[in-house]
Amino acid sequence: MKRMTWWLLCWLLLSLVFHNITCQNNGKKKCCNNHTAQNPRCCMEYVDSILTKETGEATIEVMQNLEQTLEEADLSDTTHISVNHLLAVRYKPKGPFQGIKFYASDNEASSDEDVTNSKVRVQLPRELKAGSNNTIVFCMLTWPETNGTIWGSSEKIHESRLVGLSVRGKKISGLQERVNITMNLTSVNVTRTPSCVFFNFSTKKFSDDGCTTQWKPSQNQVTCSCDHLTYFGVLMVSASLSPEDQNILSYITIIGCSLSLFTLVITVILFITNRKVRADVSMRVHINLAIALILLNVHFLPSQAVAALPSSGLCFYIAIAIHYSLLATLSWMALEGFHLYLLLVKVFNIYIRRYLLKLSLVGWGIPAVIVSIVIIIDKGTYGHATLSDSKSSRICYITNNTVKMVTTVGMFGFVFIFNMIMLGVTVRRIVSLRQSKEFGQSDHDRAKRDICTLLGVITLLGITWGLVFFSFGYLATAGLYLFCILNSLQGFFIFLWFVMSLRKINNSTTNTGSESRTTNSST
Predict the structure, then answer these.
(1) Are 302 and 343 in the same domain?
(2) What is the DSSP letter of 401?
(3) In terms of domains, do 163 and 307 share one?
(4) pLDDT value at position 327?
(5) Cα gap 183→233, rounded to integer Å
(6) Is the pLDDT confidence value at 511 over 60?
């Protein structure tokens, strides 16, 4: 009987303890579900208890609720809250909003500069235009004892830390003045580089759309420059190239593009000053491709310098110009393939009324339509972006990966397949012509002429751009070196092709004149 009484007392005691814990958790959970609650600390304590147990989808929902609770809580002044793994600041603007800075360490967050050992610094622009009713919320969460792969991230989030930013009553996106989040780096090596990302609550995936990463290998901090507000983090991604290779490739690109730009300008001048060349339809097609490459190089070379300037309008123009000239270059490469098809396959009856005008409408018109549609849909698509794997250098280009993939990669894939077919037709035609040997011409001369013709066709069709497909896996470094060398020098190769063609035209004219004079003398 005594034993039964003892067990009954133990059971009652455990039930009371469990009931008390359950009531506390339910009470804290209720704080997060009721966004009009007056005590956001209660919600933060509940979220903190979830963070210590989970890193998956359960934490996504509670973080959304926490964000709304912090925004909607009726607090009259700026408030600083700290709960274990969560830090928050609620800022109430007073008077015209001139921007705000937040600072955070491991256990303290503030909108003042008196935070010691701050690891995170955030600067919000004046463009937010927050009023007295638009409470600005800064929140920093750090997962305890995780491997850094949180919310489905493919790589490790630096120090398992996310920084959340929001404004009550506003959905902030497409900012011209960027939001800058600077984080200290403590464990960077040559095999991993930082990449700024944000969490998209709609797709439940991390993305870098609208964000650029400002970082160099020698720096111990990274700045994420973004055009919207949400939860941001820094992914430590595996670097496919060493910093030395990146610098070498950068110099190769600058030197090659500069040489191509110089020689392409000479090509255009030679075309304008030579009447016989201007009369050649093929030369007119080539010169349009040369002009497209000139536009591409003129705007690409200063793009990185322009991106470092405070002027967003100039960067916007450069981004549009690069996109347009790149699409125009791809279009004229495809038209080179089409023109080659008419010359080699449709040898007879190839007259097309206003042929060059129609080619120009396609080569220059289609890129203009694509760029116009992108601007109409979302002007913020153009701005500061990154191209290198390290994402450390900013240029002015397309910031939306979807637009970039569809309009440039998609178009390049179509042009590359089409021109590869045209290259196959060209090789087949050359082989068939070699079967009928021309009188007085050696095999060595024919082979040399065929090789030069084939190399010229490869350059005009942009086949070397396909080397980008070899810039992955084990061939990444070698493929990128070949890609940068050959494609940055494409304009120089076109110049050589043009000079050889010009020499051929002059020689044929001289031979024709000599034959005419000989015939007249005989007569």
Answers:
(1) yes
(2) H
(3) no
(4) 94
(5) 9
(6) no
Give the Cα separation of 287 and 292 in Å (integer). Answer: 9
Inside any domain, residue 4: no
Q: Give the residue-averaged pLDDT of 216-228.
A: 85
- Asked whether the beta carbons of 87 and 81 are under 8 A apart, the reply is yes
Question: In which residue are the tokens 């040399």 written?
Answer: 448
- CA separation for the pair 453, 436 (Å, rounded): 18
Residue numbers of the domain that contains 381: 243-509
Separation of CA 64 from chain center: 28
- The sign of the CA dihedral 91, 95, 99, 105 is negative
Q: What is the pLDDT of residues 142-201, one digit of tens each?
A: 877 655 567 777 678 888 888 999 888 888 888 888 899 999 887 655 567 788 899 888
Same domain, 215 and 252: no
Residues sharing a CB contact under 8 Å with residue 20, sequence separation 6 or more, in sequence order? none
Number of domains in the chain: 2
Q: Does 316 have pLDDT greater than 80?
A: yes
Question: Of the candidates 238, 272, 301, which is a domain's last residue?
Answer: 238
Kindly write down the DSSP assignment for every residue of 33-90, as one continuous string.
H-TT-S-HHHHHHHHHHHHTT--SHHHHHHHHHHHHHHHHS--SS-EEEEETTEEEEE
Examine the pLDDT at 36 and tell me if it is beyond 70. no
Residue type, 420: M
Tokens encoding 468: 């980008």
Check: pTM over 0.70? Answer yes or no.
Answer: no
Residues contacting 355, CB < 8 A, separation 6+? 281
pLDDT band, residue 17 (cuts 50/70/90): very low
Residue keyed to tokens 């050649």? 280
Residue 175 lies in a domain: yes
Can you give the CATH number for the domain in which 167 is found?
A: 2.60.220.50
- Tokens encoding 71: 């925004």
Residues 381 and 351 in one domain: yes
Q: pLDDT confidence of 35, banded at 50, 70, 90?
A: very low
Do 377 and 451 have their domain in common?
yes
Q: State residue 259's pLDDT score.
A: 92
> pLDDT value at position 442?
54
**Which helix (H) or strand (E) segment is 450 a member of?**
helix 443-461
Using pLDDT thresholds of 50, 70 and 90, give the confidence band for residue 393: low
What burial class does residue 264 get, using C-beta atoms within 10 Å of its C-beta: 0-12 exposed, 13-18 middle, 19+ buried? buried
Indicate whether 9 belongs to any domain.
Answer: no
Is residue 262 in a domain?
yes
The DSSP string of 408-426 is IIHHHHHHHHHHHHHHHHH
Residue that wins the pLDDT comparison between 82 and 233: 233
Question: Which of 181, 206, 238 marks a domain boundary?
Answer: 238
Same domain assignment for residues 199 and 289: no
If asked whether residues 234 and 250 sit together in one domain, one would say no
pLDDT exceeding 70 applies to what percent of the chain? 75
